[in-house]
UniProtKB/TrEMBL annotation:
Protein name: Exocyst complex component Sec3 PIP2-binding N-terminal domain-containing protein
GO biological process assignments: exocytosis; Golgi to plasma membrane transport
Keywords, sorted A to Z: Coiled coil, Exocytosis, Transport
Transport listed as a keyword: yes
InterPro entries linked: Sec3-PIP2_bind, Sec3_C, Sec3_CC
Organism: Aegilops tauschii subsp. strangulata
Protein family membership: Belongs to the SEC3 family.
Gene Ontology annotations for the cellular component aspect, listed alphabetically: exocyst; plasma membrane
Keyword Protein biosynthesis (UniProt): no
Region Disordered: start-end pairs: 551-580
């Protein structure tokens, strides 16, 4: 037998892959073969049959369910890859019919009882040869008998021939299947045996069916008694009867010619009627085709209308949602356009702002479908909301500006808020902040609606509160100066007599620095708190302005019932806290606003510094230390104006102290004019007292300021001392010795603890030693001047004459030498050397 595609293992594997790719699980390909698909009428029209692959698959269930069998039609894709085309269930197979119009007998039709359209002819399958056809049909019948337990009706093929073909080819098929199944497991072999058994069963059924028909035919023939004996006699008898019959028929035909003509006429009429019926059938077929097209068009339109109905329903729902977004509640519209801003109405105003913010956000692209953005209704509603926003922002801004001004004016007009004679009043802004907090949420919503409106509001708040702060600082500073008891006459440190200077410097002026410290203690925390409150109240996105761990700052302990607990953390319109960015660009804008808020208050601090300087300039040291402590507690990026104020105060204190040092240096330089001064200069002991007092006032990091003052004062003192000493060369060294010795004696204790003074102490010691050396040298030269002259003359003559001749020169004899020695040494020990030694020992 010729090689068949049913034996192609590669084809079976491709079919199995296509079935698995379609998502079918557990299906096993039992049989596959290549066929040609066609529909008889299309082949007559010249259309070519399409190549297909038929695959019989079975699915065995392990859960007790019935086994299933399928007929899969596979087609070739553009890449010559098999892909599923159609699926038929064999349980619906009712008929297998071989087309009689095909003389080769290779074309057949499979009839299923569940086809959707019975008017469409089922597809015709054409095999390559009779063997392939029988092979496929036999496999179908085999699976139906084995799995479905029934056989479909077979039409157009002799069952006996099919059974005989099956019997002849069973061995061949079994051998081929066994060859294909080599290497499989025992379960697969058992399945193959089951298939062979099923094939034998089908053959027996077909043979038994043929035998039954043969027996029925014999029974039918037995009903007729023909008296047949020998075959030759029977044949002769049939010939004679046939001749007699033909002769009788000739006469009968001649006699029945009119009847034949009548029959022919009837046949012609029937033929015409049949032609008419054929024409009518063609017309009806055409009309039916048109009706089918109309029905298909109607179904298409119905599907379109149904889809349109669904779409319209969805569109109506979307439009209803959109209309709900576009609707403006009357109560919110009334609050936004003409509502009052009284405290009792603020909750409704805030709700209206929240609704307006949400409504505007809902009409923006992230929250609204882009296809709705350019709709006229959306654009008109957006314009209406913008108009509402502009109106509300304008009304709220005007109200808040007037409210800030009226609130501050009321506080300024009430004198009980400020310090009065005999009573220092600490500024208290708790009531002011409480009233402002009522409108904090309103400001946050104004920022979200129109950020540009905050500029004028911040300016109005700064101007109003600046008047209040300046008034409070001025009244407090005036009363602070008036209530502080301090000496009226300022001390003069480096001028005048010793007793007067010391009495002037002994007065206690600690109340002056205490007053300055109280000024900072009261107002620096106040200014920091006001800066922090302003930043949060006016919706600046900056970090907290109150520095942690600031010294001498009266921090409020936060509590549930604290009236000054400003719950003004930034929130978005949904009520969530906004975490400020430490690098916010608004920090510069905030510092500019704080400059306007607190500008002018520094003048009252300057007045306290100047007042303290006039009473006791040395108090600049303690004030400088106090200011440095506050500066160290302020962050570089927090409360910018407060830090700037402290920097300016520190600079002003340094300038005032430098002014005092310059005046002291000027007083020291005045001593130069009196060139006849002798003994210890007045500013030497005074400087020791001044240095001791300065060391007592040092606080914090003021050491650099004091060291610079020491350097300038001592340098001026030493320079002036040198100039005074040079005015009288005879007593210059004595003046230097006395004053340097006095400087060391007066600063000995301080030099041990102050490195800068220790440096000048060593400088004075070196200068003292140099002055002593010069003074002793001058005394020796003055006393032994004649002896030195005699020695020079002797040295000069050694160059011109011999040494033996020098005693014989005039004035150089031994007698002259004795006379010079006697005059030089007489009274030296008693009159000059002993008093000089005592002076050196005394200093």
């Amino acid at each position: 037998m010729a090689k068949s595609s049913a034996d192609d293992a590669e084809l079976r594997r491709a079919c199995a892959a296509a079935v698995a790719a379609s998502g079918a699980r557990g299906e096993e390909v039992s049989f596959s073969i290549r066929v040609a698909k066609g529909r008889g009428i299309f082949e007559k029209l010249g259309r070519l049959a399409k190549p297909r692959v038929l695959a019989l698959t079975t699915k065995h269930s392990s859960k007790g369910e019935a086994d299933k069998a399928f007929l899969r039609v596979l087609k070739y894709s553009s890449g010559a890859v098999l892909e599923p085309a159609k699926l038929y269930k064999l349980k619906h197979l009712t008929k297998v019919e071989v087309i009689s119009s095909d003389p080769s007998g290779c074309t057949f039709v499979l009839g299923f009882d569940n086809l959707r359209s019975q008017t469409v002819a089922p597809p015709q399958w054409t095999m390559r040869n009779i063997d392939d056809r029988n092979r496929l049909l036999f496999c179908i019948l085999n699976i139906c008998k084995e799995i479905l337990s029934y056989l479909p009706k077979v039409v157009g093929i002799d069952i006996v021939e099919l059974a005989l073909w099956a019997k002849e080819n069973t061995l061949t098929l079994d051998n081929q299947e066994n060859n294909n199944q080599e290497g499989r497991e025992t379960s697969v072999a058992t399945q193959t045996e089951r298939k062979v058994t099923a094939k034998v069963t089908v053959e027996n059924d077909l043979v038994s069916q043929a035998k039954d028909e043969e027996e029925d035919m014999e029974a039918l023939l037995d009903t007729y008694v023909m008296g047949i004996g020998e075959a030759d006699a029977f044949s002769e008898r049939l010939k004679q009867e046939l001749v007699a019959l033909e002769a009788a028929n000739v006469y009968q035909l001649l006699e029945s010619e009119p009847l034949i003509e009548e029959v022919l006429q009837g046949i012609d009429a029937a033929s015409a009627t049949i032609d008419d019926m054929d024409e009518w059938l063609r017309i009806f077929n055409l009309k039916l085709r048109h009706m089918r097209e109309d029905i298909s068009s109607i179904e298409s339109r119905n599907n379109g209308l149904e889809m349109q109905s669904v779409n319209n329903k969805g569109l109506v729902e979307e439009l209803e949602k959109l209309l709900e977004r576009l609707r403006i509640p009357q109560e919110f519209a009334a609050s936004l356009t003409g509502g009052s801003f009284e405290e009792s109405r603020m909750l409704k105003n805030v709700e209206a702002c929240e609704w307006l913010t949400g409504a505007i956000r809902c009409l923006e692209v992230p929250n609204l479908d882009p296809s709705y953005v350019n709709m006229r209704a959306v654009r008109e509603k957006r314009a209406e909301l913008e108009k509402l926003k502009i109106t509300f922002v304008k009304r709220a801004s005007e109200f808040l500006r007037n409210y800030f001004s009226s609130l501050v004016d009321f506080m300024i007009s009430d004198k009980s808020y400020f310090s009065q004679r005999g009573q220092l009043k600490r500024p208290d802004h708790a009531d002011l902040r409480y009233k402002c907090r009522t409108y904090a949420r309103l400001l946050q919503h104004l920022k979200s609606l129109d950020k540009s409106c905050l500029g004028p509001l911040r300016k109005a708040y700064c101007q109003s509160l600046n008047l209040l702060l300046r008034r409070e600082a001025r009244e407090f500073a005036n009363e602070l100066r008036a209530s502080t008891k301090a000496p009226k006459n300022p001390a003069v440190w480096l001028e005048g007599s010793n007793n007067a200077g010391q009495n002037g410097s002994s007065a206690d002026t600690s109340t002056v620095s205490d007053a300055y410290s109280k000024m900072l203690t009261i107002f620096i925390p106040l200014l920091v708190d006001e800066s922090s409150f302003f930043a949060h109240f006016m919706c600046f996105e900056v970090p907290a302005l109150v520095p942690a761990g600031a010294p001498n700052v009266n921090k409020r302990r936060s509590g549930a019932n604290d009236p000054d607990d400003d719950d003004l953390s930034l929130m978005d319109p949904d009520g969530n806290d906004i975490k400020p960015d430490n690098t916010s660009v608004e920090l510069g804008t905030l510092n500019d606003a704080l400059q306007e808020l607190l500008d002018g208050i520094q003048e009252d601090f300057y007045a306290v510094v100047d007042w303290a300087y006039k009473i006791d300039p040395l108090r600049c040291i303690s004030m400088h230390g106090i200011t440095e402590r506050y500066l160290s507690g302020q962050k570089a990026d927090a409360a910018g104006f407060v830090r700037k104020l402290l920097d300016d105060l520190e600079s002003r204190i340094s300038v005032q102290f430098s002014r005092f040092i310059d005046e002291a240096c000027h007083q020291i330089e005045r001593n130069e004019r009196n060139v006849r001064q002798t003994g210890i200069l007045a500013y030497i002991p005074r400087f020791a007292v001044l240095a001791s007092r300065m060391e007592q006032y040092i606080q914090g990091q003021s050491r650099d300021l004091i060291d610079k003052a020491y350097t300038k004062l001592v340098s001026t003192m030493f320079t002036t001392l040198e100039k005074i000493a040079q005015s009288d060369p005879k007593t210059a060294d004595i003046v230097l010795i006395e004053n340097y010795a006095a400087f060391q004696n007066s600063l000995y204790d301080l030099a041990n603890v102050v490195p800068t003074l220790a440096k000048f102490y060593h400088q004075a010691s070196e200068s003292y030693e140099q002055a002593c050396t010069r003074h002793i040298s001058s005394l020796i030269y003055l006393q032994f001047e004649r002896l030195f002259q005699f020695s020079r003359k002797v040295d000069e003559l050694t160059y011109t004459i011999a040494a033996e001749e020098i005693p014989f020169q005039l004035g150089l004899s031994k007698t002259d030498l004795r006379r010079v020695l006697k005059s030089s040494l007489s009274g030296v020990l008693t009159s000059q050397l002993v008093p000089c030694t005592e002076d050196c020992r005394r200093h």
